[in-house]
Amino acid sequence: MSLPEVLKDRLSLPLIAAPMFLASGPELVIECCKAGVVGTFPALNPRTTEQLDEWLNEIDKQLAQFEQETGQKPAPYGVNLIVHKSNPRLLDDLAIIEKHQVKLIITSLSCNAEVIDRIHAYGGIVFHDVVNVRFAKKAASMNVDGLIAVCGGAGGHAGHWNPLSLIGELREFFDKTILLAGCVSRGSDIAAAQMMGADLAYAGTRFLATKECRVVDDYKDMIVRSSAADIVYTPAISGVPASFMRESVIDAGYDPDDLTPAAEIDFGAEMVGEDKTDKKKAWKDIWSAGQGAGGIHDVPTTAELVSRLKAEYQQAHEAQAKKSQRYL
Ligand SMILES: Cc1cc2nc3c(=O)[nH]c(=O)nc-3n(C[C@H](O)[C@H](O)[C@H](O)COP(=O)(O)O)c2cc1C
User: Fold this and answer.
1) Which has the closest alpha carbon to 186: 6, 316, 38, 1?
2) Could you point out which of 26, 121, 142, 246 has its C-alpha 20 to 30 Å from the C-alpha of 223?
3) Please, where are the H alpha helices in the chain?
4) Best probe residue, ligand 1, of 15, 16, 21 (max atoms within 8 Å of C-beta)
5) Which tens digits make up the pLDDT trace of 109-130?
6) d(CA 171, CA 264)
7) What ligand 1 atom has the least distance to the C-alpha of 215?
8) GO molecular-function annotation terms (predicted)?
9) How far is the CA of 56 from the centre of ligand 1 (A)?
């Protein structure tokens, strides 16, 4: 088990609330960190680089105020950078991140040694999203501090590997931090992730259905009434395989059982707002969620959710201790 210094003794649960396009904003990040869970957001959620600077100012201010008022250290927060040739903001956003010395950077899509070196140079750490061992080995060779194993059933651009096999194989060559992503909805899932060999769990869909999340209420309600069977995993909507709720695919005018493959992924069009067509768009109109939706039945505040996850995590460990006594 390995945890970077910046996360040691700062977390109330071994959990990161994953960055989600259009969904994670300062409100969610601040509430997560106050509750002792790492809050994160994609750098592309603020619609300009100037706005990214404003968001970071606000988060820094609120967390400093929390620490001053309570004497408690909040969990650190993280920012997600989409490292891809079609993200025109990458270098400008990175300059703002350097200015704020953001402790944790989550890189996704591809890995870039120059970006990693610049983050390490100011003392930040980099966790990189991977869906298989080939990508993980490449990221490890570039000296990332952690690998996020995005497994089958995850929300967003999910992988398709079983978590036992992916975490197991990653552990054979990577002794730094490993995170398990995909279907972490309950405290017992966090305990299970650690039993499988992960250091931390990484949850997206569960945090979509919280009061502070920025998606509309209809989106949150759809998660509450969805189960794993309602999740469509397809490359047709976003260019790479991703998970979307069946009901929202139908609402957007598509047949979830007969989807035409999309062209190559283009974040310029998809995420930076250059697409001026009136076609229904992934993320904004076609709503993503993972198979973990099946374990989500309400829309609590983030503080309520974290406190429930903690109780469930503890119960899972107590139950496990009793179960394993029979065999040990
Ligand atoms: C609506 C939505 C948007 C997402 N956007 C991003 C993103 O912008 N960047 C990223 O690295 N991952 C993104 N993800 C993936 C999450 O960070 C995380 O890997 C995933 O949600 C974990 O699986 P879970 O949803 O089953 O918990 C997104 C996921 C969802 C559900």
Assistant:
1) 316
2) 26
3) 26-35, 49-70, 90-100, 113-121, 133-141, 163-173, 187-195, 205-208, 217-225, 246-251, 267-270, 302-325
4) 21
5) 889 999 999 999 999 999 999 9
6) 32
7) 1
8) nitronate monooxygenase activity
9) 20
What secondary structure does DSSP assign to 65-88, as a single string?
A: HHHHHH-PPPPPEEEEEEESTT-T
Find the 38 Cα to ligand 1 centroid distance in Å. Answer: 15
Tens digits of residue pLDDT in 257-308: 988 766 555 555 566 655 555 678 889 999 999 999 999 999 999 999 999 9
For the chain, the 3-state helix, strand and coil shares in percent, each to the nearest 5, are: 40, 15, 40
Atom of ligand 1 nearest to the CA of 156: 29
263: left (phi over 0), alpha (psi -120 to 50) or beta: beta
Fold of 11-215+303-325: TIM Barrel (3.20.20)
Residue that the structure tokens 């200015």 belong to:
99
154: CA distance to ligand 1 center in Å? 7
- Burial category of 84 from C-beta neighbours within 10 Å (exposed 0-12, middle 13-18, buried 19 and up): middle
Amino acid at 291: Q
What are the sequence ranges of the domains in the chain? Answer: 11-215+303-325, 217-291
> Nearest 5°: phi and psi at 106?
-110, 120
